[in-house]
Amino acid sequence: MFSDILATSVEQLAHDCMLLCEQHYPTIHSRGMQENHLAKTLCRRIITNAAQTNICLTAKRIEDSHLISQAIYRLQYDNTCIWVIAHHFVSANKARREALLNTIALLQQNFAPDEQHYLMIVADHWFDRSKASKEIPAWWLGDLPANHQDYATVGIKLQACDDSLANSVTQRFNYSAGSMALQHPFQRTDDQSPVLRYLFLTAIYKID
Q: How many CB atoms lie within 10 A of CB 26?
């Protein structure tokens, strides 16, 4: 049940993101989306979809600390807990990727053993000229996206990556069977084609 709610929410998130981007243009087009905007947008969508099945989720933001820079929310219903991490890849380098993994490690300390946990990660990134930036899709998905040639038509030559988010998560936390996706919520005004230079990434893990 919760897996379906989360999957549906991710599918609908691109539309919500596009509306948010229109409201905050040109800020998002120059710096990307604020992490709290990302997290709150996803949480609202999950809460709305859950309410349609008579599930009332309560939301709480995990307060910022010097240890955790990302925006983190906890959605709770009975003994089910959904953790939402929003991560802005202002840079795609290894340090920024490691920061995300370190946040998961800190968050894992709050997983009560008698509860069912879901981990959701939402992130965004504007492609730049660096190799690290061009590796992000392959790092996130575990392989180049099927439409990687489409990126080349707009001057983005995606790169394979020796590591992946899924491998790192499995090795460090023993989580498996994550569901990763890429989206491009911006559209060109002339032909409604996606703006491939802006990347929107999501991952869902059910913690066994």
A: 8
**Rg from Cα positions in the chain:** 17
- The pLDDT score that the predictor gives to residue 64 is 60
pLDDT one-digit tens code per residue, 124-134: 888 989 999 99
CA quadruple 65, 68, 74, 79: dihedral sign? negative
> Distance between CA 5 and CA 204 in Å, rounded?
11
Task: Round the average pLDDT of the chain to a whole number and report it.
Answer: 86
Q: Say how far apart CA 77 and CA 59 lie, in whole Å.
A: 9
Quote the CA–CA distance of 145 and 142 in Å, as a whole number: 9
Q: Could you give the angle at the alpha carbon of 79 between the alpha carbons of 83 and 180, nearest 5°?
A: 35
* Amino acid found at 122: V
The answer, yes or no, to whether residue 20 has pLDDT greater than 80, is no
Q: HSE on the CB side for 167, CA within 13 Å?
A: 11
Encode 51-102 in three state secondary structure. Answer: HCCCCCCEEEEECCCCCCCCEEEEEEECCEEEEEEEEECCCCCHHHHHHHHH
Residues 6+ apart with CB under 8 A from 142: 164, 165, 166, 167, 180
